[in-house]
Design goal:
This protein is mainly β. The protein has two domains: 4-89, OB fold (Dihydrolipoamide Acetyltransferase, E2P), CATH 2.40.50; 95-161, no CATH class. Helices cover 0% and strands 42% of the residues. The strands form three sheets. The protein has a seven-stranded mixed β-sheet, with no helix packed on it. A four-stranded mixed β-sheet has the order 8-11-13-10, with no helix packed on it. Strand 2 (30-35) and strand 3 (41-46) form a beta hairpin. The termini are close together. The relative contact order is 0.19.
């Protein structure tokens, strides 16, 4: 199971990232430097498999949240360098939660509970309809208003199943 961790900040630089000595994959990988404005920064390695929510284009100056696997090995360098699994460009009109949701559709951290309707769009990473149960899975949840309860409850705008 993926242990999703995140880092949020402003994109300071986007540059090519070389993965092979012979130019293999040239232009397919980038290094995205993100600074949180409080003295911490990270570099995200963005690969062809990195999922950009809503297929948003990201540029220097954009606020983003990058999600990575907290259990994956990383080089011991500063700033830390993580393989980005998911990048979310900040949007004032929607929130995004990336987490494991249990059989009650409550996030692993206990902060969000989902209330589905028959009209909630549920898709897989490749954009195709997901027709199985979404319980006990890693999900990318796009949502708006929530209740003030604990956990907060919401009816999502959409759900992407992270298979």
């Amino acid at each position: 199971m993926v242990n999703f961790l995140s880092f949020q900040g402003t994109v300071m630089e986007i540059s090519d990232f070389m993965i092979g000595a012979n130019g293999e994959g040239e232009g397919c990988y980038t290094l995205m430097s993100v600074d949180n404005g409080a003295g911490a920064s990270v570099n995200f390695v963005v690969s062809p498999t990195t999922y950009f929510v809503n297929q948003e284009m990201v540029a220097v100056g954009d606020r983003v949240t990058g999600y990575y696997d907290g259990n994956a090995p990383v080089p011991l360098i500063y700033p830390p360098q993580y393989r980005a699994l998911i990048i979310v460009k900040d949007n004032p009109y929607q929130d995004v939660k990336v987490d494991y949701f249990n059989s009650q559709l409550e996030s692993k951290d206990g902060q969000l509970k989902l209330n589905l309707t028959p009209y909630t769009p549920i898709i897989s990473r490749n954009g195709q309809p997901f027709t199985r149960s979404i319980t006990n899975r890693n999900l990318i949840v796009i949502y708006g208003p929530t209740t003030r309860s604990i956990p907060a409850q919401t009816t999502p705008y959409g759900i992407i199943v992270w298979c």
